[in-house]
């Protein structure tokens, strides 16, 4: 699509006709990750000044979805999967297989060298860490988090998410 915009231009700055034309001309790929793991990642990266994970979660819940940071905001509100028809949705934990498949579908050579993906290897660490941090939360916080991320849990199949229970 002929680019008539700068690299930093937000999609929302275009009119509906232009958005539809641009979106129809691109291959759209969405990378998704379990919302609870995203929350842990935000906490670990120091996105919150809270001393404990439980108080960090409470800050996110108290702030609500509209005030949440990009790292803790539900994916559905960030990526608009109901409005944008993504060609591919790729799950964290399967990136090596899925990116390889995507590149083949895009017609790139089979012998293309892919970067080393570590998402599969870190999954067991996140499983352990998720269980530890989840156990720190009150029953009410767990319920509120499940509600906070309900659209993500409905839109994407996070079958092993602690929030799905």
UniProtKB/TrEMBL annotation:
Signal peptide: none annotated. Its EC number is 2.8.2.-. Its main location: Golgi. It holds the Pfam family Sulfotransfer_2. It is found in: Golgi apparatus membrane. The keyword Cytoplasm does not apply. One of its GO terms (biological process) is carbohydrate biosynthetic process. Keywords: Carbohydrate metabolism, Glycoprotein, Golgi apparatus, Membrane, Signal-anchor, Transferase, Transmembrane, Transmembrane helix. One of its GO terms (cellular component) is Golgi membrane. GO terms for molecular function: sulfotransferase activity. InterPro entries: Carb_sulfotrans_8-10 (IPR018011), Sulfotransferase (IPR005331). It is a single-pass type II membrane protein. Belongs to the sulfotransferase 2 family. This is Carbohydrate sulfotransferase. The lineage of its organism: Eukaryota, Metazoa, Chordata, Craniata, Vertebrata. The gene is Chst8_1.
């Amino acid at each position: 699509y002929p680019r008539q915009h700068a690299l930093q231009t937000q999609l929302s700055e275009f009119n509906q006709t232009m958005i539809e034309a641009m979106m129809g001309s691109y291959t759209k790929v969405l990378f998704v990750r379990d919302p609870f793991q995203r929350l842990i990642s935000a906490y670990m990266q120091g996105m919150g000044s809270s001393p404990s994970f439980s108080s960090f979660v409470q800050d996110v819940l108290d702030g609500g979805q509209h005030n949440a940071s990009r790292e803790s905001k539900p994916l559905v509100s960030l990526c608009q999967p109901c409005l944008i028809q993504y060609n591919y949705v790729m799950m964290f934990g399967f990136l090596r297989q899925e990116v390889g498949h995507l590149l083949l579908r895009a017609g790139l050579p089979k012998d293309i060298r892919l970067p080393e993906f570590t998402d599969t290897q870190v999954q067991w660490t996140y499983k352990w860490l998720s269980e530890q941090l989840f156990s720190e939360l009150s029953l009410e916080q767990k319920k509120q988090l499940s509600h906070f991320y309900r659209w993500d849990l409905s839109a994407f199949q996070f079958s092993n998410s602690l929030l799905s229970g």
